[in-house]
Structure formats: C-alpha cells, structure tokens
C-alpha cells in the first residue's frame, strides 16, 4: 500500500505541469459560462476586464509580498517598462480586442481562430529559437506533427458539424439566454480576432524572457493584473462614457468578476507562468483547445445545446495531436538531462582513477 502511494505521488510530481494545465483549462471552461451569463445580464465586457484584474491583483498581492520577499528582484525602470508591455499584450490590448471581436463576429468563428494560438506560438518560438526542431529525429517530427494534428482537430471542431447528437433526456440545468444584441462587422471583427491571437502568442513568448529577469511568478502576476487593469480602465473610459456601466450589484456580475479575478487572472495566470518557466510557452498554449472541447461537452449536458459529431471527432484529433507534441517535448527534456548525467558519471569515473603523476611526485619527495 505504501509503495503504491509513493508511486502515485512520484507520478503526480512528474506530471505536475500537465495536471495543472488541465485544471487551468477546466477553469477557463467555467469562465465561458459565467461570463456569458454576466454579459447577457448587461455587464459591459471592458468594465468586467478592469474589475476582474483589480480583484486578482488585490488577492495575490499579500502572497507575493510575503512569500517572494527574498527572491523578488529589484524593479528597475527598464523592467517595469517590460512588465508594462507584457500587461498590454496579455490584458489591456488582447482581452479588449477579444471581447470587441466577439460582438462583431460569432463564437464559432472566434473559437476556430483563437485556438490557432498554439500553432502561432510554436512558429514564433521556432523563429526566436526557443524551440529546436530536428526533422531527422523522431521527437522533432512528433512536435511538428502534434502541432499540425492539433490544428486540424481545432478546425474540424469549429468548421465541420456533421450529424447532430440526440439531446439529453433531461431539461437544461442552466439557461444562459439573454437579450444581448450582436452587430456583425466581419471585416473589423476578423482583424480584431487575428490581432488578439497574435498579441496573445507574443505574450506567451515574452513571458519566457521576462521570467528570466524577474523569476517571481506571484509578484509578476500581481504587477500584470494591476498594470493591465489600469490600461483597461483608460480604454474603457474612452469608449464607455456612462457611469451606470461601472455599477454592478450583488448578482451574477459580481460573482463573474470574483471568479474571473481570483481563479483566472490570479491562480490560472500564476499556473501558466510557472509552467512556462518549467516547460516553455509552447507547452502551455497546446492545452488551450481542451477548453473548447470541454465547453462543447458541458454545454450539451448542462445547457441542452446541440452537439455535433464534428466536435467529437475534432476533440479526439486534438487529444492525439496534444499527445504527440507532449511526447516530443518530453523526449527533448530527457535528451537535455542525459548529457548532464553522462558528464557527472565521467567526472565520478575520473575521480576513481589513480593519479599516477601525483604518486610519482610523492615518491620523489615533491609536493
């Protein structure tokens, strides 16, 4: 029994980044439903972004201050400017463009484009040499195939419907229908969607560089939330002149803000920063399509929405592509560890060998 528990704990430690990223995607899944209900209730998306990141910053601040007091680097002007750009890419610019494009297009189009972030990040990482591709090696081929297969699965889920599955025999548990109006403008909406994907991909890549100079994930999360909230507030004041939009009651608007701030902008962002430092930005983004699959499944069982066969086929393809990429990256880590282990073994063998020169010098009486 004790041996089984020990093996289980060792397995959890080994796959800790994988488990955390799956939990992060589950968090994003519930975010989709609670924010949709809040927006249908009448909350302004840009006000939501501002409040959400203020809440996240206030919650994480005490943990960052006390837990990282000894490891937190000094904040220089150059480093603050870097965090400012990082916050703009991850919060102030990207999220506001994302929600603006949601009003101008439709969720299906947005999902199909947003889920290409993993592929965009992978390409940018190769260009910046954060990822090394060796097509003569099986692990290099696996990473390329995994990215392409996952992208194919995403496109299958969003562009191919197929037969409709039979609705569950029970009534929908939750009803999120509202009176929100969608004003389509596909040209501007498409530009905003693609731009938000590009900026978010750059944000994931930039995290890897910033963490090298500021290796305090909690403090970096706090700074990004406060700076991003300030940036979003400035933008919201420009586009929204009504004071009533800033007022929220003790209802779904309040709870969606708390959930988005504490769970998503707080815990999940910290998890992503930690996993980025451990595994790299490509590893983090490859889990994003899982939330699309989870949303489709949960919407079918809980909301009574239609579920198409294409979603199931695409989900299976996504999981296959994700497995290929993770296998390739796992092999990369083993390849990086083995040379170090071989070097240590060689040093140990050298130390065991008798020092003939020293013995001769001792016999001659020389030091």
UniProtKB/TrEMBL annotation:
Domain EamA: 19-157, 188-326
Entry membrane topology: Multi-pass membrane protein
InterPro entries found in the cross-reference section: EamA_dom, EmrE-like, WAT1-related
Biased composition (Polar residues): 339-348
One Gene Ontology term of the molecular function aspect: transmembrane transporter activity
Domain of life: Eukaryota
Residues covered by region (Disordered): 339-367
Keyword Membrane assigned: yes
Main location, first listed in the record: membrane
One Gene Ontology CC term in the entry: membrane
Keyword Cell division in annotation: no
Keywords in alphabetical order: Membrane, Transmembrane, Transmembrane helix
Compartments, as annotated in UniProt: Membrane
Regions that span the bilayer: 20-39, 51-67, 79-102, 108-128, 140-160, 186-206, 218-238, 258-275, 282-301, 307-326
Family: Belongs to the drug/metabolite transporter (DMT) superfamily. Plant drug/metabolite exporter (P-DME) (TC 2.A.7.4) family.
Protein name: WAT1-related protein
């Amino acid at each position: 029994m004790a041996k089984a528990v020990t093996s289980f704990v060792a397995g959890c430690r080994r796959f800790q980044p994988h488990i955390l990223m799956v939990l992060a995607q589950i968090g994003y899944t519930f975010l989709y439903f609670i924010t949709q209900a809040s927006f249908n209730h009448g909350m302004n998306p840009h006000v939501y972004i501002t409040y959400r990141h203020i809440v996240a910053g206030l919650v994480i601040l005490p943990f960052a201050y006390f837990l990282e007091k000894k490891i937190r680097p000094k904040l220089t002007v150059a480093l603050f400017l870097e965090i400012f750009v990082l916050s703009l890419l991850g919060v102030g610019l990207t999220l506001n463009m994302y929600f603006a494009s949601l009003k101008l297009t439709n969720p299906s189009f947005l999902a199909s484009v947003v889920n290409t972030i993993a592929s965009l990040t992978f390409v940018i990482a190769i260009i910046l040499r954060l990822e090394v591709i060796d097509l003569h090696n099986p692990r290099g081929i696996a990473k390329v195939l995994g990215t392409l297969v996952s992208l194919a699965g995403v496109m299958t889920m969003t562009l191919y419907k197929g037969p409709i599955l039979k609705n569950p025999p029970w009534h929908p548990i939750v009803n999120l229908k509202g009176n929100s109006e969608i004003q389509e403008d596909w040209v501007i909406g498409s530009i905003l969607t693609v731009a938000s994907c590009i900026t978010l991909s750059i944000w994931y890549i930039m995290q890897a560089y910033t963490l090298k100079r500021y290796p305090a994930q909690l403090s970096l999360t706090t700074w990004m939330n406060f700076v991003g909230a300030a940036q979003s507030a400035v933008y919201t004041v420009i586009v929204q002149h009504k004071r009533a939009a800033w007022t929220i009651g003790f209802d779904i608007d309040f709870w969606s803000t708390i959930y988005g701030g504490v769970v998503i902008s707080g815990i999940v962002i910290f998890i992503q920063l930690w996993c980025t430092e451990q595994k790299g930005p490509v590893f983090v983004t490859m889990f994003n399509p899982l939330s699309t699959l989870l949303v489709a499944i949960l919407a079918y069982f809980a909301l009574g929405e239609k579920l198409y066969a294409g979603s199931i086929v695409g989900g299976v393809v996504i999981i296959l592509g994700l497995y290929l990429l993770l296998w390739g990256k796992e092999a990369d880590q083993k390849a990086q560890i083995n040379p170090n282990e071989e070097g240590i073994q060689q040093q140990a063998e050298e130390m065991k060998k008798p020092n003939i020169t020293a013995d001769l010098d001792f016999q001659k009486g020389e030091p």
